[in-house]
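so ive been stuck on this for like two days lol. basically i have the seq below and the ligand is S-adenosylmethionine, smiles is in there too. i just want the complex predicted, nothing fancy, no docking runs or whatever. if the output looks off dont worry ill sanity check it later, just need somthing to start from for the group meeting slides
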Amino acid sequence: MLRRCALPASLALGAAALTASVLAQPTYARSDGALTGKPKLARRSTVGSLKALHSRTARIAAVHTANGTALGALDRRLGAIEAASAQNQTGAVEVPPVFDAAHYPHGINANFLCADKEKLDACYGGGGCGRFENPTIREIARNVPAIVAVMQAAPCVALRAGDTVLDVGAGTGVFAAPLLEVVGQQPSSTGQLVQLEVSEGFVALLRDKAEATALAGQGVVRVEQCSDTATNVEPGCADVALMCDVYHHLSMPLTFMRDLRASLRDGGKLVLIDFHRDDARIWSHPPGWVEQHVRAGQDEFRAEIEAAGFTFVEELKINGMTENYCMVFRK
Ligand SMILES: C[S@@+](CC[C@H](N)C(=O)[O-])C[C@H]1O[C@@H](n2cnc3c(N)ncnc32)[C@H](O)[C@@H]1O
């Protein structure tokens, strides 16, 4: 970084040399010691030179002060640039991805960002008939038990009793019952299911369901509202995070994934399920839909998640799923 500097050495040397040359002007003296006319001239010229030197030094000092001011301004500017660059490196500043404006005219999560839990439940839950839970129209809804079974059986995830599992973007909570069954259903269990949602309406719906589950003695579920950029749970608290059809809905993926990584314990796992961006695999929607709905393909999403600090572990095969892939990452 630039720092304000002292009077440049070359200028200082120049001023000193000028002073020395003026002081070295020859003077003339008679043998009786009186000064001749010559010394008068010499004195005048010495005084004149000193004045010139003085004004030159003043000009140099003024220029130096101006330079110092300019250097100070540059210094502050560079400091700001360095701070911004450091922020970029830590992910504090993210340029949000571009979504298909025709497909998402009101924003990427407009359909979900609604406070009305009844309306959301009717549309997406509907006791198994809504868009998230209906197996006749959604591949995930057909495969919920198979997905959780693979999370248990695959050594790279090995979800088990006592684990804390985050269901990130839980929606209507379609994974709640099978996840609870694995990690522990009793209040005394150290295992915990934590459902995270950005939508106020889904949070309210999930809390209603969690209360009913607890009342029925079927387990304790914690529900938290997160933001576009943060999970809002304690750092290092989770063993496994599940994101099912959520990554393509993240408005600030890099920032959110960095924060999600911080929410996992060291060695914690991320199980990420999302759509293949390939019409040939999609049976639930018309041709062209997936290209609009999902902003990028599997390779690009994998690279983004790696850029957020996760390590790719492997892709898991889930029999019965053709539309969606399942990738596992490690913190
Ligand atoms: C297609 S739904 C999937 C719901 C659920 N995972 C499932 O498979 O049934 C996507 C969900 O992600 C949620 N979402 C979007 N951005 C989110 C974020 N930053 N954090 C948490 N949830 C988010 C939406 O509110 C929505 O409920």
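Strands lie at 164-168, 192-197, 221-225, 238-244, 264-275, 311-315, 324-330. The chain is about 45% helix and 15% strand.
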